[in-house]
Amino acid sequence: MLAALVVVLAIVAAACVAYGIAIERRWYRLRTYDLAILPPGGPDRLDVLHLSDLHFVRGDAGKRRFLARLPPADVTVVTGDLLAEPEAVENAVDALRPARGRLASWFVLGSNDYFVPQPLNYFAYFRRQRKHRRAAGGRAADLTAQLRADGWVDLTNSRRETAIGALDVELLGLDDAHIHWHDLRVAPRETDRFGVAVMHSPDSAPETAALGYDLMFAGHTHGGQVCLPLVGALVTNCSMPRRLVAGLIRMGPAILHTSPGLGTSKYAPFRFFCRPEATIIRLRPRAGPDGPGATLTGSGT
């Protein structure tokens, strides 16, 4: 009886892994939120496309087709880990071209863009403290240069004042806090403009919210990548609690959107109950003096 149970469990486990590799990791979807957060006097609506953790390899035809079919947005934000291997720089830049924003296109990088990804023991993700291993440098300079030549703005460790149509913005970009490359010295606010912060890891979000930024974008977590019914994400790979692994998150008066991402590491090519996702956030003016509010209006495949 015990032997039969072990066999059944092994078959179920193998089927789940096969599903995660063959189906779910390529089962891309677009999710849409309405977020009433803009100050009065600005635009009536501003569509922001948030992409993260694309982890491109050479080829990646399905991901390229998905990106090409996305509806146009006013602003596109990419929050790092574009690459799963350095050889994919040109493929990633070319695939992102149709997804550029009408008014602005912004990006920061993540550790997988700076360093060549390496195989990792999956159980290491459950350790509270993980050692950072030595890794070969990637092609981050090539990636940054080609994105900038294609019209993208590199926000890495910078703060600037800009405008998106009729909306005046104080814009912050932070490098990857997961590898401690973020520089919070650039983060303090200097204006009362609408504050937007872009980062790879949400580890930077509490400090950024405390500094008064209104809307923050992050990735890195992959939404947990492996989730279980009734349990949710098993890990977040950062300091955020598991219940805050993805989606719209209120942090005081600020709102953080953490993207589940569109890809996976080439050495962990599966997802489970955590579909790869691109997100459009429709920003609208605040309805009243009570601060931001968010409503999920729908999702599709």
List keywords for this structure.
alpha/beta; 15 strands; six-stranded mixed sheet; seven-stranded mixed sheet; 6 helices; 28% strand
Shape: globular
- Structural Rg: 19 Å
Number of DSSP helical runs: 6
Report the strand count. Answer: 15
**Separation of the first and last Cα atoms:** 42 Å
Instruction: Kindly report the spatial arrangement of strands forming the biggest sheet.
Output: 5-4-3-2-14-1-15
Strand content: 25-35%
Helix content: 10-25%
Query: Main β-sheet, in a few words?
Result: 7 strands, mixed
Give the SSE string: HEEHEHEHHEEEEHEEEEEEE
- What are the low-pLDDT stretches, counting only 5+ consecutive residues below 50? 291-301
Helix/strand-derived class?
alpha/beta
What's the pLDDT, averaged over the residues? 90
Would you mind describing this structure in some detail?
The chain is α/β, with parallel strands linked by helices and 301 residues long. Helices cover 19% and strands 28% of the residues. It contains six helices and 15 strands. It has a seven-stranded mixed sheet, covered by helices on one side. A six-stranded mixed sheet has the order 6-7-8-9-13-12. It is globular. Mean pLDDT is 90; it is low at 291-301.
Topology, please?
Blueprint: H1 2-22, E1 29-38, E2 46-51, H2 61-69, E3 75-79, H3 89-96, E4 104-108, H4 111-114, H5 140-149, E5 153-154, E6 158-164, E7 167-174, E8 194-199, H6 205-210, E9 215-218, E10 227-228, E11 232-233, E12 247-251, E13 254-258, E14 277-285, E15 293-300
Parallel strand pairs: 1-14, 2-3, 3-4, 4-5, 7-8, 8-9, 9-13
Antiparallel strand pairs: 1-15, 2-14, 6-7, 10-11, 12-13
